[in-house]
Design brief:
This protein is about 35% helix and about 15% strand. It is built from 11 helices and 14 strands. Bound molecules: iron/sulfur cluster. The site of iron/sulfur cluster has 13 residues, from α2 and α11.
Length: about 400
């Protein structure tokens, strides 16, 4: 069986051979990275349902298998917070962009030969692989490969995210693969969702009359001289406001409120194209990189790349700075994957849709899709329910309360 060269793998190897060794030779991932991967995988499944079934309810249903049941030894509250986070991001996406994209081909995983640019021969050791989230016809007539991304990066013009996409081979690879598989394409629609920076917080505990509860150092409730319960803390006097963690539903309302106030923080799209020379450069680079990885495998040489510009003190720092012996099993805080390309797992092998229209004469770079929401919803998350799904009104949060173990 051939080895798989994804653009993520190429990137890892080019960044630091030692990092590539941990990730792709040993299959290690930090547990926090596994969480990030789960959010991306679940979110993309929900977006597939939204795009192809054109229903927010179907999209939220598609999330359920990823969060049922809660795995053993997992913090149930954190698990439910995560599920609610993804659900709110999908509901906010629907509100932000309105009608789903017009898809003309389904999500697909592809595997293609790595070609020697001098001889045209295919590598007998490596294939390249990747996946896209569909092929869409844009309102301006362009045909694009759709790629959903979840990121923690700044999506505004002040950040470097979009500038870097102009150089990133992951975009080039998708466009090249789509064309090799027979699609006539104008570019890649990068459809990006930013993960929240805000976190679930705490709320004051209330008594039966709806009053906040403040206690003194000995744990007794504090009352004002007029007999009313005190409503504020006072550190110097030792008065403490009693609080409790938000429920997942309350966290969902907080997140939706934030999405409504600043949708541009969470959602951005651009169509990006590539010149033929850029595609040829990427193909040539893939050939060179697979040869170099093969050489490293044969010699078991996995150099560290350490400088301020190249070593990000990545998630393998603790292994990198210790005498880690892979024979000793999976280190604490990591998981070992059977499939070192988990991002390729999913529902990608459905039949191809029909394609395509001739490309537009204009280069489709930097076409930014226009958001459709007209008024900022505030307060109740039901306002996020699209008008054409009004009969499928969401509950007070995106996950029915019966599912929440409180
Ligand atoms: S900590 Fe630096 S040198 Fe070590 S694996 Fe990560 S990127 Fe490479």
């Amino acid at each position: 069986m051939k080895q798989i060269l994804t653009t993520n793998r190429m990137q890892s190897f080019k960044m630091c051979r030692r990092k590539h060794y941990f990730e792709y030779e040993l299959g290690l991932r930090q547990q926090v990275d596994a969480r990030s991967l789960r959010i991306t995988t679940a979110g993309r499944a929900a977006l597939h349902a939204l795009q192809h079934e054109r229903s927010l309810v179907a999209a939220l249903d598609a999330l359920r298998p990823f969060y049922e049941p809660c795995p053993p030894a997992t913090d149930r509250r954190e698990w439910d917070y995560e599920r609610e986070t993804v659900a709110c991001l999908i509901a906010g996406y629907r509100w932000r962009w309105g009608e789903p994209l017009t898809m003309i081909a389904r999500p697909k995983r592809f595997q293609l030969p790595v070609i020697n640019p001098k001889t045209g021969a295919a590598s007998t050791i490596w294939d390249t692989a990747g996946q896209w989230d569909g092929i869409a016809k844009m309102p301006n007539g362009q045909t694009v490969v759709v790629k959903h991304r979840f990121t923690a990066e700044d999506l505004s013009s002040e950040g470097s995210f979009w500038t870097r996409q102009q150089l990133d081979h992951r975009v080039t690879h998708l466009l090249d693969a789509g064309r090799q598989l027979g699609h006539t394409l104008d570019g890649v629609l990068l459809d990006v969702i930013r993960k929240p920076l805000i976190r679930p917080g705490t709320l004051p505990m209330l008594d039966e009359a709806g009053h906040k509860v403040v206690i003194d150092r000995s744990g007794h409730r504090v009352f004002n001289p007029n007999g009313q319960p005190r409503q504020t803390a006072h550190a110097a006097k030792g008065f403490t406001l009693q609080t409790r963690p938000m429920t997942p539903l309350e966290w969902g309302e907080k997140l939706l409120e934030d999405i409504g106030q600043r949708p541009e923080f969470y959602y951005a799209r651009q169509v990006i194209s590539r010149r033929d020379e850029e595609i040829a450069e990427m193909q040539s680079e893939a050939w060179e990189v697979q040869q170099t990885i093969r050489d490293a495998q044969n010699k078991q040489r996995w150099f560290k790349t350490v400088s301020r510009d190249t070593c990000s003190l990545c998630s393998f720092l603790t292994l990198c700075t210790s005498q880690f012996d892979p024979q000793q099993g999976t280190p604490r805080g990591f998981v070992r994957l059977d499939d070192v390309h988990p991002e390729l797992q999913g529902e990608f092998d459905r039949p191809k849709g029909s394609c395509c229209q001739p490309p537009s004469a204009t280069r489709p770079e930097d076409v930014i899709a226009t958001p459709v929401q007209t008024a900022r919803p505030t307060g109740h998350p039901e306002r996020f329910t699209p008008a054409n799904e009004a009969s499928q009104t969401l509950p007070t949060s995106t996950i029915p309360e019966d599912d929440i173990p409180f």
